[in-house]
Write a structure and sequence with these properties.
With about 575 residues, this protein is of the alpha+beta class. It has helices at about 5-15, 120-130, 135-150, 240-250, 260-265, 270-285, 290-295, 295-300, 320-325, 390-395, 440-450, 455-480, 490-520, 545-555, 565-570; strands at about 25, 35-45, 55, 60, 65, 80, 85, 90, 95, 100-105, 155-160, 165-170, 180-185, 190-195, 220, 235, 310-315, 360, 365-370, 380-385, 395-400, 410-415, 525-530, 535-540. The protein has a seven-stranded antiparallel beta sheet. Strands 10-11-12-13-16-15 form a six-stranded mixed beta sheet, covered by helices on one side. A three-stranded antiparallel beta sheet has the order 3-8-9. The protein is globular and about 90 Å long.
């Protein structure tokens, strides 16, 4: 009996993916420019290096089990029953184009059950191996936590396939309570949605009193999960999601007024500003800015005026995949929360901030820093595209890289591949040792040169980033044409080689970029280049500081740095 098929994989996942502050953006197929369903994931958290995991497809014998190592106490000797067939999984997309990503909202921490067997990442991985579409994945995850228990805190989970996008929110029941309470909603095809470490589902459709399972309503409780395959079903939830909240004292009103977020993840200024501000900024890119700015009181903690963002919106125009990739690089630029618009951005307009998230001055006044979508602590970033009109093996593409979305080029990797490019393999991305073979460390090498002198250096990075992504996008038509007459085996071999070649091209370009940056920006000046981009032997520019930093010097330091002759001349 094969008991250890996933032991190594799930142990690595549990080791490398601590509960972290992440971001998901979601696009329905009628809200996208080409009819694809799209979603994104910045997996953020200090202390781990990003990499790409692979679980091969396989058929399994009756009685086979999987050893599970959860994020709670060690679960030695505990197993999950295997299924007859498991799908090939690369990253967080399987061979049927099913994609599952997440963000952690914590919520009521007393509801975490450390004795439950399945953490959220193990749960997602198992669903990707077992489910062919989003509806099957929701059913799979609900049944798994009921049977084996759930040990993570609150999670918002994005589940997408080539036709549909869903958001599912789940939280445990506390010590000695094995199951979980949850709700899942289908996102309208013509809408965009997002979540970023705060529960987003409030009220949801509930079954009428005269519900008959023979005629499915648009919503179902978990006791009728078998009907989730019906296309008219657009909401499904744990049968006791309201009853349990009443039992715990989290809710006492009418069922119709029940809000999952308010019961299981009460809001405060801190979690709204750090989390929902990212959702607001994404929506603001694709909707009337003045309308979205009406939610600023909410982001500023004035919950009497407004206490939530819409769960989804219909965008002003369809989004392309490249639009979505740019959304993942957001730092609130050109909004009231712009992180480059004052002296806290430092001498060169840095749009990120070091930790901690909040701090005090010597007078005891407390401050906070903004938390944008793009952030330096990302382990990896991905934008996932699922296309119903193409064969699965080329229709599903994970555009992937390690580290900060703002600082990397997205590399296309096809969902059918069985060979992970070397630079993305876990063993080539050690957490505590630099490696030229590691995408994580090569990207961090460049990023950590650019961060402190952002406005000075970012255009050189943008040039390399656009050069690569322009090439990858331009090559996709030829890839789709090339596979038209291939057998499935030949397609897989071709797409393996393509994905590996794309990753290799990225690593070579980033090596060249890193060496260019250290020469051009050596010793705080900027070496001059000729019209062809070649370094001049002599000559350099002294770029100085961004103006908002210069304007802050006088109020902060008085006359210390003022030129004496200028002072005397003014006095005369």
């Amino acid at each position: 009996m094969k008991k250890n098929l996933l032991t190594t994989l799930l142990l690595l996942v549990a080791t490398l993916f601590p509960a972290a502050a992440c971001t998901n953006l979601i696009v329905g197929k009628k809200a996208s420019a080409d009819g694809s369903v799209m979603c994104t994931y910045n997996c953020d958290g200090f202390g781990f290096s990003g990499s790409l995991f692979h679980s091969p497809a396989g058929r399994h014998a009756p009685g086979e089990q999987i050893a599970i190592h959860g994020w709670g106490p060690a679960h030695e000797g505990q197993f999950v029953k295997q299924v007859e067939y498991t799908y090939n999984v690369v990253g967080l997309m399987n061979e049927k184009q099913l994609t599952i990503v997440e963000t952690t909202f914590d919520g009521r921490l007393e509801l975490q059950n450390r004795e439950g067997l399945l953490d959220y990442f193990s749960l997602m991985r198992l669903a990707l191996q077992r489910a062919a579409n989003a509806r099957e994945a929701i059913k799979c995850m609900a049944e798994l936590v009921e049977e084996y228990g759930y040990n993570s805190s609150g999670e918002s989970i994005t589940i997408c396939d080539p036709n549909e996008a869903w958001i599912m929110e789940i939280i445990g029941k506390g010590k000695d309570r094995k199951g979980a309470v949850w709700v899942a909603l289908r996102i309208p095809d013509d809408c965009i949605c997002a979540h970023a470490n705060l529960s987003r589902i409030r009220q949801f459709p509930q079954e009428p009193q005269n519900f008959s399972p023979k005629i499915p309503h648009k919503s179902l409780s978990s006791k009728h999960l078998q009907y989730i395959t019906r296309p008219e079903v657009e909401c499904v939830y744990a049968a006791d999601v309201i009853e349990f909240a009443r039992e715990k004292g989290y809710f006492s009103g009418k069922d119709a007024d029940f809000s999952f977020r308010d019961a299981y993840c009460p809001i405060d200024f801190e979690n709204v500003r750090y989390a929902d501000a990212r959702v607001w900024s994404f929506f603001r890119h694709h909707y009337d800015e003045a309308e979205m700015d009406k939610y600023l009181p909410y982001l500023n903690g004035d919950f009497d005026k407004c206490d939530h963002l819409p769960l989804w919106i219909k965008p002003d125009a369809p989004l392309s995949l490249r639009d979505l990739q740019e959304d993942m690089r957001d730092h609130f630029e050109n909004t009231p929360l712009d992180m480059t618009a004052d002296m806290t951005a430092g001498p060169w307009g840095m749009p990120i901030r070091p930790l901690p998230m909040h701090f005090r001055d010597t007078a005891g006044v407390s401050y906070f820093r903004e938390r944008p979508i793009a952030t330096q602590q990302s382990g990896f970033t991905m934008t996932c595209q699922m296309r119903s009109w193409l064969p699965d093996d080329v229709g599903g593409v994970t555009w992937f890289n390690c580290d900060d979305a703002d600082m990397v080029a997205y590399v296309p990797l096809y969902c059918c591949i069985t060979q992970v490019p070397d630079c993305f393999r876990p063993e080539n991305n050690p957490r505590t040792e630099f490696s030229f073979e590691s995408a994580f460390w090569m990207n961090n090498w460049v990023a950590n040169m650019v961060y402190p002198r952002y406005s000075m250096m970012i255009e050189d990075l943008r040039k390399a980033q656009c050069e690569l992504e322009d090439y990858y996008f331009a090559d996709q038509d030829s890839v789709q044409k090339a596979i038209e007459t291939m057998t499935p085996a030949d397609r897989r071999d071709y797409l393996n080689k393509k994905s590996i070649a794309y990753a290799y091209k990225m690593m070579k370009r980033w090596d060249k970029l890193a060496k260019y940056l250290i020469v051009r920006y050596n010793d705080q000046v900027v070496r001059k280049v000729d019209k062809d981009g070649n370094f001049q032997r002599w000559g350099y520019d002294t770029p100085g500081y961004d103006i908002q930093f210069i304007n802050a010097i006088g109020p902060s330091t008085g006359d210390r740095y003022r030129l004496k002759e200028v002072i005397e001349r003014r006095e005369r």
